[in-house]
Amino acid sequence: MTRGSRGVAVVGVALSDCGRVDDATPYALHAQAARRALADAGLERRHVDGFASAGLGTLPPVEVAEYLGLRPTWVDSTAVGGSTWEVMAAHAADAIAAGHANAVLLVYGSTARADIRAGRRTGNLSFGARGPLQFEVPYGHTLIAKYAMAARRHMIEHGTTIEQLAEVAVQARANAALNADAMFREPVTVDEVLSGPMIADPFTKLHCCIRSDGGAAVLLAAEEYARDCRTAPVRVLGTGEHVSHAAMSEWSDFTVSPAAVSGRLAFERAGVRPDEMDFAQIYDAFTYMTLVTLEDLGFCGKGEGGAFVEKGRLRVEGGELPVNTDGGGLSAQHPGMRGLFLLVEAVRQLRGEAGARQVRGRDGRLPRLGVASGTGGWFCSSGTVVLGRD
């Protein structure tokens, strides 16, 4: 984040109905999440002069803004996959700090699950076959195959085991068990993860995110707006973004994600260290994403992610670094580009509004610092946001 003359805070967050939502359109989920975020902040639609959205419509921000009855004077439609929302939050924070906007609404909604059940779409195996992808798609190099190859490379180079990767899914489910709104809450074991149907070697079904419906919204505002909001402001302390590659053949190291750059920038700009974080919300379309992002954000050394996760460190209850405290994309919800959900959960944790899954220090205190890091494509992009409360 480029420092400007005004401080920036998240003043409103919300989710739409999530999980199994068979009777709503994506537009309706956008609107539901947006209304709830505004109500959470205690602001009205007229206060919103900035808008960011991606993934819906021919002209995504224009169509969705019109549906919501907004006429913004600042707009962003950056689309870099799952990291879109952390990158948009960075852009919005810069715009507010510079005085180009006062209150920016980020909103997303998807009926990915309901559309497949109703036959409105099918499960896609790739993002297309144009540009650089034309050299990979003919060989069956699907999205999940790319992640599976990267995971296998990490296993070969660093001795990471499939049991260690399974621990990520087990601990995500343990956190989801504390979240009444999570789609899957029943505990799972390492053996159950390993014995599931093979999807793409080495990933079985439970190594992969669930498919759900749902939406989310985050409202950022200048500090003078934050003073009048009904909720305690959560400060945007630092942000970073980075893009790495499009074709796997151009990815120099399968064991290093772009979070290695975006995380470093975010922590440097925030003036804090990874070991000061009370929790981390990490994009987890696959178990390997969590493990390698933990390494690249600096929570452990390169190649040490397997040993780090196998000690139960990611759990809300008893974990040294609670990760994906709502259950993540592996268990809570994953309606597509899930990065905005990471920000919602991070803010709720910092406010002390997470209920049974609330992170607390050993002295019972609420968390003061947290990080949300989104990943897009097949480790093609990353956005990282460090948040804190006064």
From TrEMBL:
Which SUPFAM superfamilies does the record cross-reference, listed alphabetically? Thiolase-like
> Where would I find the Thiolase C-terminal domain in this sequence?
240-389
What the entry lists under Gene3D superfamilies is as follows:
3.40.47.10
Concerning InterPro entries, the annotation shows: Thiolase, Thiolase-like, Thiolase_C_2
Q: Which Pfam families match?
A: Thiolase_C_1
Q: Which PANTHER family match?
A: ACETYL-COA C-ACETYLTRANSFERASE, NON-SPECIFIC LIPID-TRANSFER PROTEIN-LIKE 2
The entry's protein name is Acetyl-CoA acetyltransferase
What lineage, starting at the top, does this entry show? Answer: Bacteria, Bacillati, Actinomycetota, Actinomycetes, Kitasatosporales
